[in-house]
Amino acid sequence: MIEVTELCRTFSKGKRLRRTEHPTVTALDRVSFSVPTGETHGILGPNGAGKTTLIKILSTMLVPTSGRAVVAGHDVVSQTDVVRRRIGMVFGGDRGLYDRISARQNLAFWATLYRVDPRRVDARAAMLLERVGLTDRADEPVERFSRGMRQRLHLARGLVGDPSVLFLDEPTVGMDPVAAREFRSLVGELRAEGRTILLTTHDMGEAEALCDRVTLVDHGRVLVTENTADVGRTLGEPQGIDIVLAPHQSETLESLSKLPEVRSVERLSGAHAFRVHTEPPASVETVMRWLVDHGVLSLQVRPPTLEEVYVRLIGKRGLTV
Amino acid sequence: MSFAELPTTYTLRSWTVGWVIRLGSQALFFVLLGRLTGATGRLEYMLVGNSVAVVAMETMFVSATAVTERFQGTFPLLVVSPANMGLVYLGRGLHWPASGLASSFAVLSALSLVFSSPWHWWQVVLALPLLVLVAVSTYCYACLIAALSLRNVKFRTLYPETGALLLTAFCGVNVSTSFWPEPLHWLAQLLPLTHGLEAVRHLLNGGAASSVLLQAGLEIGCAALWAGLTLLLFERIVAAGRRDGSLGFS
User: Fold this and answer.
1) Is B192 a domain residue?
2) Where are chain A's structural domains?
3) B65: nearest CA in chain A?
4) DSSP one-letter code for A200
5) Would residue B186 count as lying in a domain?
6) Distance CA B190, CA B165 (A)
7) What is the signed CA dihedral for A247, A252, A254, A258, rounded to 10 degrees?
8) B250 in a domain, yes or no?
9) If exposure means fewest CB atoms within 10 Å of the residue's CB, which of A22, B47, B55, B59 is most exposed?
10) Total of domains in chain B
11) Is B4–A11 a contact, with Cβ atoms under 8 angstroms apart?
12) Which residues of A touch B244 (CB under 8 A)?
């Protein structure tokens, strides 16, 4: 459904002057990956990694410097019009809506632009408003909406043309946790419908909850593309141990925390359940031996989480939003 | 969409008590200047010119509407929609020529009454279709200005002000187009408003129907010219924006 091959995009720095060489910035550097039909695919990376540039190219807003991108079976450069009829675009933040008119009027306008049959425009707007839970506020000016409501309307706007491919560019940025959760639930429904979704996000929890596969990018390059559940394997080493202590083993916990190989011990939700973070990660074996020697029999080596993979591959700067 | 936004700009009260009176005062200022000159027919000339020019001034607001799309982040979404950008913009601000038409007709009617103009009331009513024509042609021109403002947002005030100045200065609003040097006189023939205004003058002064129709036809030609240029410019602006990356999401 989405095929990206050796995609490059550079930008000139400063104004274009005649007969002068300009320094350029490489936003995308030979990026290749594919997203099959019905997959929800996450693009993860720090600010400036090239995520938005990639989405811009795939949504036909930007032309690549070289390489090829195919969306819904059509080239984004030579078959722009066909691609535009098959995609929906949703981005985060407060912008992208007509604030002074109502949610219903917003959707009716976009439905007209997406060539929805004029006799069906009102019904389509009503259906989408119902879907995103805005029916009760449909005729209020959008400027009165909360951040979460605006984002739900944004999603409805993105669905107005019934797209087979949906681009979500950091859609939950700036939302409170409850609103973000509601929004993710809506995206989950779209995923269940079999739409192809390309999601860029900084939120690892969001990526883990929504994405079938993820691609990590940094400095315009793809670092890894992997199933979300298996992405931890890319590091090739465990990051810690989950243990359950018996009630009488509180002294063991104290001693464990003082081991030089143990970075921290985190209490988990279950009674007497703990997560042991080791440092360096390879010292898991040493700590496991210590735990067995001290009578801890319920233990499980834990593969790295997506966030740990992200931090290891991209570095701490990647968590700065 | 366009007309849905109109009530957020004006209420009936603010339009009548505020806006039309403000435009009427501007036209009145120039009409009084015309009277001060003491020249025969100068008052009527400036009354018609400034009343009809009102519609051109108001259509220029489409430029501000266009630039707002940039600031509220809807412009890139319009670009990636299947619609033709130029056509979208030609439809997007249609409330401005409609409102400009009403303002212009109100000012023309009121000033004609106040200054006991020599034409009949029914001639003013007959001028309405010509005002519609001027509204359409100046709107097409204003959409081109809007496209320029979209491309260079930092000049968003300069472009419409210059565009409006060209119309009021050279299109026969206060002085005849023949007053200007030859090149400017010819430029005025290509600008909207010139022929439409001339047609209104012919009609109100009891000119031959053929001369009214000729000027109306020329105004239609100008409208087509500026509509074509607007569509072309929007296409080029979007293409350039896709190349240089100036079409941001936010």
Assistant:
1) yes
2) 2-233, 238-303
3) A98
4) E
5) yes
6) 15
7) -160
8) no
9) A22
10) 1
11) no
12) 11-12
For the question of whether the overall pTM of this predicted structure is more than 0.90, the answer is: no
Judge: A84–B8 Cβ closer than 8 Å, yes or no. no
Q: Which CATH number fits domain A2-233: 3.40.50.620, 3.40.50.300, 3.30.110.70, 3.30.1490.20?
A: 3.40.50.300
Q: Would you call the peptide bond into B7 cis, given omega within 30 degrees of 0 as the criterion? A: no
Of B1, B73, B80, the CB nearest to A61: B80
Separation of alpha carbons A268 and A298, rounded Å: 14
- B82: chain A residues, CB-CB within 8 Å: 81, 84-85, 113-115, 161
pLDDT at site A236: 63
Q: How many C-beta neighbours within 10 Å does residue A170 have?
A: 24
Q: Is B202 exposed, middle or buried (0-12, 13-18, 19+ CB in 10 A)?
A: buried
Q: Read off the pLDDT of residues B167-214 as tens digits, 9 standing for 90 and up.
A: 999 999 999 999 999 999 999 999 999 999 999 999 999 999 999 999
The structure tokens listed for B75 are 């412009």
Contacts of A71 (CB under 8 A, 6+ apart): A1, A2, A58, A83, A86, A87, A165
What is the per-residue DSSP string for B115-169? Answer: TT-SS-HHHHHHTHHHHHHHHHHHHHHHHHHHHHHHH-GGGTTHHHHHHHHHHHH
pLDDT band at A321, cuts 50/70/90? very low
Q: Give me the residues paired with residue B178 across strands.
A: none
Which structural domain range is residue B107 located in?
2-244
Q: Which CATH architecture has domain A238-303?
A: 2-Layer Sandwich (3.30)
Please name the member of A52, A56, A96 whose beta carbon is closest to the beta carbon of B77: A96
B11: pLDDT strictly greater than 90 = no
